[in-house]
Specification:
Largest sheet: 5 strands, mixed
Number of domains: 3
Mean pLDDT: 91
Number of strands: 13
Order of helices and strands: HHHEEHEHEHEEEEEHEHEEEH
Low-confidence stretches: none
CATH architecture of the largest domain: 3-Layer(aba) Sandwich
Radius of gyration: 23 Å
């Protein structure tokens, strides 16, 4: 079986753009060239990779998703070989993409990528952010080869390596009656309204906390933005439970916050490094994984 890298590149481009026309334009080739290459690839593999919809682009088949993941890996390896051959004896180089849970992006990703870039300037890193499903999908399709998220709601096809456990804590407005305390039991706040960080993984985690303590929270506002939650709390509209401590106790509008430890025994949120199960990572992925472990050890 003779499969060319060009055919794989055309297939990946068509899958990414969900269009033969857009894939051809992105690669500066003719549309028939892309169509013929993908058709030839399907013939050699004996499976249909894409479903063609007249005037509506293409959709990837279930079998195509599996091939897409392996095609990305093969193309990445080919790029690594080319980079290695042209830079023998030089610093590691190449391209990679990491996926990150939206909630974790502002707290960790900028400083992680900055320190990695300083240590390995020849490795170009991009990232994709989203909810847990988006991250898992990116790992399964090969769009990303590494992810930073919680170790919750993961399929068997994804392996997780714990990086850090984060204890939950309470934030209140600086003028709140408990703001001068260091610790609080959540039952003491039961009559206060709650500002809920309404992201899928976070929402389920905080809901489980209230349930475990027999508390029915009076949810006043919900937001998918951590800064919006901090701002609402800082303006006295309720309290919230978070896991990632910010460097500043000042909200975006300048209002002040106070942090309180929770006396109740509660499960931490575990930030983990995710990879496709059984995958042999490329060298630059191993380098980023090692750097990420060191990064969290130094927090």
């Amino acid at each position: 079986m003779q499969i060319s890298l060009k055919e794989l590149r055309f297939f990946v481009a068509a899958a990414d753009h969900q269009s033969i026309t857009l894939a051809a334009a992105s690669m500066n080739v003719s549309q028939p060239s892309v169509s013929l290459a993908i058709a030839g690839l399907e013939d050699r593999l004996g499976i249909q990779l894409l479903v063609r919809h007249h005037a509506r682009g293409v959709a990837i088949t279930a079998a195509g998703i599996d091939v897409l993941r392996e095609a990305r890996k093969l193309l990445a390896h080919a790029n690594d070989i080319q980079a290695m051959a042209s830079a023998l004896g030089e610093a590691p180089r190449g391209r990679l993409k990491i996926a990150c849970l939206t909630y974790l992006v502002p707290r960790y990703l900028p400083s992680l990528l900055s320190s990695f870039s300083a240590a390995y300037p020849e490795i170009e890193v991009d990232f994709v952010e989203g909810d847990q499903k988006r991250l898992v999908d990116s790992l399964m399709t090969g769009e990303a080869e590494l992810a930073l998220s919680y170790d919750l709601d993961l399929p068997n096809s994804v392996s997780s390596e714990p990086l850090v456990d984060l204890e939950p804590y309470v934030i209140v407005a600086k003028r709140h009656q408990f703001a001068g305390q260091k610790r609080v039991r959540l039952q003491e706040l039961e009559q206060d309204p709650v500002i809920l960080l309404d992201l899928p993984i976070s929402r389920d985690y905080y809901t489980a906390i209230f349930t475990s303590l027999g508390i029915t929270p009076r949810i006043r506002h919900r937001s998918t933005s951590i800064e919006a939650v901090r701002g609402l709390v800082a303006n006295g509209l309720g309290y919230s439970i978070l896991n990632h401590r910010a460097k500043s106790l000042t909200a975006y509008d300048g209002r002040k916050l106070a942090e309180l430890q929770i006396e109740d025994s509660l499960p931490p949120a575990r930030v983990s490094l995710l990879m496709p199960s059984g995958m042999k990572p490329r060298r630059i992925i191993e380098i980023l994984a090692a750097h990420t472990r060191s990064f969290f050890l130094d927090l």
